[in-house]
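Hi R.,

Here's the chain you asked about this morning:
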Amino acid sequence: MRADFTHVVIGAGAVGLAIARKLAERDGTSTLLIEKHDSAGTETSSRNSEVIHAGLYYGHDSLKTKLCLQGKHMVYDLCRRENIRHRNTKKWIVAQDDQQWEELVKVHKFARSIDVPTRFLPLQEAHDKEPDVRAQAGVLESESTGIVDSHGLMTWLEGKFQSLGGETAFNTTVSGIEALPSGGFKIHTASDDGNSEPVTTETLINSGGLFAIPISNMILPESRQLTPYYAKGTYFSYSASHPRPNTLVYPAPRPGHGGLGTHLTLDLSNPPRVRFGPDVEWVDDPNDYKPNHSRLAAALDEIETYLPSLQRDAVAVDYCGIRPKLGKLGAVASGKGFQDFIIRKEDGFDTFVNLLGIESPGLTSSLAIGEYVDGLLYR
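And the predicted structure, written out as tokens:
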């Protein structure tokens, strides 16, 4: 039986869009992109800091490092070429004591080993540039970090995918998947318009983000099924005109922590608005986007460690994002329990590519992940 499509990609976040666009470039193929919401990129891809990461935290041999380094250059190149809004803001990682300084030294040594430009700023230079930022023990500057209009990037990817003949099915939820004896897959769906006709595909790519593990569990035998974990992060707005640094500011990384600390980021408005976050709160519901106001006090205390003149009453709970996790594991490779991306063909299912735990730096890595998945299938 001839399949309806050559490729089906589940999930139209930044990563799913990048994969679908890359596969749609292949002559003589057809690609369907399935998305449960009514538009692309409404979950993790749009509820984040929009940072173009340098690749400083993820260890020598990880997919996160490989794909972040490649993806960073691809995102910058694409944004310049297609006039997608972005800015090379740079980033400061700040230390307040000797222990945090040692973490900065580790980051700098690792960055040098992978040819990512970082430099320690003399404290007087740092004070002259950003007098409101406290860094009692040191500042490490990441020169290639920036920010990107994630919506603009995803809009471009979606348009390019459609111009290549790709098809999208929005408001469509995957309800079941069958591996066919002759090869390929039958995908059962439910859509808002009541159409539940299954589709068949030669190859299946699971880029379901927060729902990738439940989708994976529809296919894999019980002994290989996983339990999803969800790290909710609250973001905080800032309404005061002072202090307003002009660079991103991150606390020193904490080994074993589920995130990178409640950091200061900027948006692309002119002048740029300051926002803080995310923190880490483990939740059971991947749809729990209700801001938790009880997180504010702890966030203010952390922010004040590097921005002591913060006007506390100008900080407000803003929005939340949720990161898909494979366990309550660390976000940086310097501690125990670091969790890398999983992007692989699954044993016994040669035309099924599974993407699990695609959190930060997923946005930065998205274009590189598209190429990586194409390579898994065709090289």
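Residues 213 and 228 are 6 Å apart (CA to CA).

Let me know if you need anything else.
M.
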